[in-house]
Amino acid sequence: MLNQINGLHHVTSLASSASENNTFFSQDLGLRRIKATVNFDNPEVYHLYYGDKVGNAGSVLTYFPFPNMARGRRGAGEVGTTAFSIPTGSMSFWRERLHAIGAGYAMPTHRFGEQRLEFYGPDGDHFALIEAEDNRTPWTTDGIPAEHAIRGFHSVDMRVKDVAPMIELMTFMGYDVSAKEGSVTRLVIANGNAANKIDLIEVPGAESSKEGAGSVHHIAFSVATKADQRAVQSALTKVGYRVTDVRNRTYFHAIYFRTPAGILFEIATDEPGFTADEDVASLGTGLKLPQQHEKRRERLQQTLEPLKDLKH
Hints:
The chain is α+β, with helices and mostly antiparallel strands. Helix content is 17%, strand content 34%. The chain has helices at 18-28, 91-101, 163-172, 226-238, 297-303; strands at 8-15, 32-38, 46-51, 60-65, 78-86, 109-111, 114-120, 126-131, 152-160, 175-181, 184-189, 197-202, 216-223, 247-248, 252-258, 264-272. It has an eight-stranded mixed sheet.
């Protein structure tokens, strides 16, 4: 069993409009845009990062906004819900705010004794706010004070046809089954970061999901260092997973593999972090390009959709 994984690092999804995406997460939900860069493989598409003040592991939601992309289809074999942690007593504040911004939401429910408010993003992306005791320092805005602000990720829900192979993988990665409630199995990683929970939802009769706008493209798990990442890469390979070579993503190093359910997992390092090319005060204010695409800056500036407060 692995002991290097600390919980979630980031969640990366797909969108159909960069400007709508930017407004929803940086204004409506009050996350900080910590990085505006481009897709390494398709630099005419943004890669937008949102999180806390410095993009600590377990707080970072990222998007590839492909203009006018068709919506995905919900089903089995996907991360169906990304859940954020909010302070206890914040539910009424968020119900009012979600109503004001026109985000469809369901009445609060309970899962494993936690109050949960589910809602939708601009592309039908499915989210939840969960009241929890969480000591992480939030990013705050004029409309969202610290006593109600999002702390970071709480967990993700994975919708799978057969839960057993995923439980086997997650326990190998260092998670333990902590509770079951109906079709939901919760796994928790001990001594991890605050984003240390995964909920597996068994949906044996569901059709397979189809990727598109509003879909989660992959989820990334945190390891502290490149040495830890190499150890995870070796261990996963030895038990039969096809793991990629290490990819340098400027702000972290990444490896990828497919799970038995078809969900794409990434193992990402906490180092060097999002201040690799911007200081803390300037995070997310300028268009940052990978070195190999810097020569295309002028063309990309003309191609990419203008974003509010983004300096080219």
